[in-house]
Write a structure and sequence with these properties.
Length: 166
């Protein structure tokens, strides 16, 4: 199995930390090589059962007012072409305008969207239910997976779940 995964989310939620942890030394990071005009390969993870190509989606992390209609179209086209969208959020922060902008772009997409709640090492386990509930009302996520990219918690489960969608 193989497939493309787009990691999207506000700045500082932990996207790079996740990629660095997952991709480790196993593969070469090719962040400067454009795959197409719109997708940038950030890394490839080769597992026993699968190969996962992580790509960046230009434009999607920026605030709305700076985005032209063309960029929005480009972002949407990219998101349509991937197998899984990982929408990463910070467990420490309430849902914000930046998150809502991204969820708006995702509205109506047929691509499975995972809510990945990162930095769970920073919260009390009891808080997780409330965080999950606050996002559940905003979007129909295919999967909701809490992780700590920094400490490595639940990353294996996330990757195994992604594999099911490839
Ligand atoms: P990006 O902008 O989404 O790529 O975010 P980065 O990966 O650059 O991370 C932003 C900051 O959050 C850095 O200081 C990371 O060390 C920190 N960070 C990322 N993941 C975690 C996590 O799971 N737990 C904690 N406590 N910090 C994290
Ligand atoms: Mg980054």
């Amino acid at each position: 199995k193989s497939g493309f995964i787009s990691i999207i989310g506000r700045p500082n939620v932990g996207k790079s930390t996740f990629l660095n942890r997952v991709i480790g030394q196993k593969i070469a990071i090719m962040s400067d090589k454009p795959q197409t005009t719109r997708n940038k390969i950030q890394g490839v993870l080769t597992r026993e059962q699968s190969q996962m190509v992580f790509i960046d989606t230009p434009g999607i992390h920026k605030p709305k007012h700076k985005l032209g209609e063309f960029m929005i179209k480009v972002s949407k086209n990219t998101l349509r072409e991937v197998d899984v969208i990982m929408f990463m959020v910070n467990a420490e922060q309430a849902i914000g305008k930046g998150d809502e902008f991204i969820l708006e772009l995702l509205e109506g997409t047929k691509t499975p969207v995972f809510l990945v709640i990162n930095k769970i090492d920073q919260i009390h386990p009891d808080e997780l239910i409330g965080i999950i509930e606050s996002y559940k009302g905003k979007f129909n996520f295919s999967e909701i997976i809490p992780i700590s990219a920094l400490e490595g918690n639940n990353i294996d489960n996330l990757l195994a779940t992604i594999e099911n969608y490839l």
